[in-house]
Amino acid sequence: MRKLEHLAKALSVLVAGSSMLVLGAVIAKAAGQGEDAAPRLFVEYDGSRYFLTRQLNNEELHELLTGNTLVFIHPAGEEQELHLENGQTLNGWEAGRDASTGFWQIEGDEVCWTYPSGTHCKPLYQSELENLYGQVPGWYDGPLAFIWEPGDSRGLLDRPLRGDAI
User: Fold this and answer.
1) N or C end of the chain: which has fewer CB within 10 A?
2) What count of Cα atoms within 13 Å lies in the side-chain half-sphere of residue 71?
3) Which residues are CB-contacts of 149 (< 8 A; sequence separation ≥ 6)?
């Protein structure tokens, strides 16, 4: 019988010690110990990963977009978007023959694009690679990478137009 009492006492000490370990883990988590760092946003481009460093502000968005082309890097290919100074936009795919017409504007620190399918507004971010940016949220699981090119670099104005925004 004494052996059972000793075994029960040892077991209660073990359980109490385990509870303290579990309690310590909860307290350590609550104090920020052992937690994963906040995930950093990134884009992938030419097989490499580049972290997004900061959101572009209103003035930077105007400078980046006005009169220039953004080339979005989708899994299915490149989507090209020319932003005319008058607020109109042309959008097409690298393999496409024509371009859709729409409108763009800056609202706060986000770009809003309007096409017949609707309006969507997104913040844009600078990456750690010059002239590489990210749209957040992207169309997929994470930010969508894009590059900036001056003027109508992809000849969108030379394509047959769909829509009547221009």
Assistant:
1) N
2) 17
3) 68, 69, 70, 71
SS3 151: coil
DSSP H or E stretch at residue 14: helix 2-30
In the block, residue with structure tokens 């096409």: 115
Tokens 């800056």: give the residue.
106
CB-CB contact of 107 with 89 (8 Å)? no
Identify whether the C-beta of residue 104 lies closer than 8 Å to the C-beta of residue 113. yes
- The answer, as to whether pTM is greater than 0.70, is yes
Which of 50, 76, 54, 59 shows the shortest CA–CA distance to 147?
50
Cα torsion 114, 96, 148, 41: sign: positive
pLDDT in tens, 93-145: 998 899 999 999 999 999 999 998 899 999 999 999 999 999 998 767 789 99
